[in-house]
Amino acid sequence: MPDAARVLAPRIIDAASAIREATVAAMEHDDRVFVMGEGATDPKGIFGTTSGLVERFGPDRVMEMPVAENGWTGIAIGAALCGQRPILVHQRVEFSLLAMEQLVNNAAKIHYVSGGRHRAPLVVRLVVGRGWGQGPAHSQSLEAMFAHVPGLKVVMPASAADAKGLLLGAIADDGPVIVIEHRWVHYASGHVDPEPVAMALDGPRRLRAGDDCTVVSTSYMTLETLQAADALADAGCGVDLFDLRVLRPLRLEAIIASVRRTGRLVTVDTGHATYGIGAEIVARVAAEAFDRMKAAPCRIGLPEHPTPSARTLAEAYYPRSPGIAATIGRIVGVPRSKIAAIAERLGDARDSVPLDIPHPSFKGPF
Amino acid sequence: MASSTLTSVPDRATRLELFRRMLRIRRIEEEIARRYADQRMRCPVHLSVGQEAAAVGACAVLRPTDPIVSTHRCHGHYLAKGGDLPAMIAELHGKATGCCGGRGGSMHLFDPAVGVLASVPIVGSNVPLGVGAALAAKQRKRPDVAVAFFGDGAFEEGVVHEAANFAGCHRLPVVFVLENNLYSVYTPIDARQPARPLVAFAETHALAAEHVDGNDVLAVRDAMARAVVRARRGDGPSLLIVDTYRFLEHCGATDDDHLGYRPKGELAAWRDRCPIARMRAELRAQGELDDATEQDFEAAIAREIDDAFVAADNAPFPAAETAMESVHA
Is-contact A195 A245, C-beta < 8 A? Predict the structure, then answer.
């Protein structure tokens, strides 16, 4: 289909469907690609992302795995060393903690230690849970732990288009790529190219242009931050918003250039603020653009306690668009009354839906 | 190695070759031990002196295309599989000509040209890699048999059981070779495991199993031959329990009997069961090995070792500015 026709006929699907579409395309294109996962072939199909695959490709290419995460991660690495291209999927990030040994000691090292003679092309899909009382060990956003390790690449899509394109880019990569999918991003919908176009794992994308504050967000927090940015724009506060997309390798050139222009930086990521993605971005940007900064940078992230299950405790746990808008507004110097009005408007928009399920407005497109 | 079929009785040439391969590994590691105090090999070394029959017997029936995965104690497996000696010695010296270009050291030996897929220094961590290699062989319909070497300590690691469970479930062409040398570093097996036969592992994971004297290279070879034949014809994975013993310290190059962690007399008793001395005695008794042949072996091995060390000494170190290369594929 010519490019113009694609633009004229947008096809709106959600990210979960986009992930499945990417997987099907990769498996049809290359018979070395196969899927491994606990539940990959079950009736729920990893939130629909693997539904129908086993019927299409058979159990040898869509492998139901024993509950043995480190074992089958090592098996995937061994198969990858021998030329296969496995896609591993875990329904929760936490399950992959059992496989950290293989990922950190073997997957991340083997290309380096072999001087480039060994390749471990594997994709590890991890799902961050949120809502409905998931609690402390089913909702962690641990991307900083993976992004800390040289040799791994780490991506976090925030849109349906990126969910497909970044996954295809990850599958095409000759090394290990961790793809962290926020469960609520699975519901994000938007125009997705029907063709299998692999996106380069090459860094952030500017989603909103503005002159007052540079904001860098990741994954689901990009959706909250977009709402905040749009509300602030209505009040005359311009947010230069970047969706980070690729956490490692970390490409900050565009963000640093933006901060040199706006003089302000706020980060909004899905993990804990302390030792988090925002901390790394703030440190690097400050080192490069300190002389241009008009205000101290600010990190928005999760507080210093595990995720509680009860909704009364969880409601205060997650940053949301009203708080994000208030923080950005304060740093930019938006009058308090205006900030309060913006926060109230964002809060009202949210009040119609319980806070422990995704808001319908997160469907996009954007 | 010359032999009409894998499971037939090895002929004289095969038996001599098994002896020569063990002798070669012994002499190489003795030379490493002799030179280690010079501190030009500046990485940990885990010598397999005393355990040569396991490596040589198991690798004797493999093809270059059969992938093996090894451990921190990988010199013997690497050499038995045909790994390049100068590249190994250079790696121990941290030289650019090493098999890992100086990035891995003694515990990461690999040589893809002969199927030494990887060596991994985290106990048990290599075992799923071997199962993955077997999975790839099955998926690609290649006739390869993968082999995972590990020790009695790895038997305590969950990942080994996870990997074996998967191999049993999918009937993969893999052989698990468990070298029981009775110790994890300084801790004896009876302080770490209940009194039960290790071979019970096999039934749990639906593996065929054999328990052999790991200092009898012919016994190891024959058991391995049966396991490889099973794997290659699609009859699934096997476990070999191979009883053997480490003569030198866990990490380093010297005798450590003075530390007192081995019962008195145990080391001496196992030295009396040296796999090389035993094979030599058998070959001599059958008139298959004479002084001239053994001297020829020794001389050729000595030349090869000397050449490897000279080459390693003369080789360049990797340039500091290359450290950032190959982080990503």
Answer: no
